[in-house]
Amino acid sequence: MAVLEIRQFPDKILRKKAEPVTTITESERDLIRDMFEAMYLSSGVGLAAPQVGVSKQIIVCNPTGQRSDELAIINPHVRYRKGKKVKDCEGCLSIPEISAEVVRFLKISVTGKDPSGKDFELEAEGLLARIIAHECDHLEGVLFIDRIGFFKRKALVNKYKKKTGITCIGKWY
Which homologous superfamily does the CATH classification assign to the domain defined by 12-164? Predict the structure, then answer.
């Protein structure tokens, strides 16, 4: 088991669209196991492959922390969003110590493949829906700070710059 490093904003891979997985091999299953371990070591509830430097459409999540609740999705696709939109606090392992209220749908339906290659569809709501939506955003190069207002984002980025010592964030901010 390899200990994966979680990439920190403004790492360029966090802004790239991840590549679909065409064949699920033991390599992808090993990556998924390592992603879960990296997520747990960082006290997270979700992680996308680009966050560990791998441009593949793979996400892992676990809203409870119980190993029996682990969920890995390969090539996830949010088919629909429904219900009311809810504002709740989000953070990200790639932007540590920064959080903001983000509006997301309460319920989503996601399709994809499990680590064995079997197709599935899942209807999720509440925290699980939020985690899946957040991680699917990562696969598109979207960060949670992109989903908040300009002035709040600017303030959070400035706070992050002070905490990390980064002087240049890039063209997005």
Answer: Peptide deformylase (3.90.45.10)
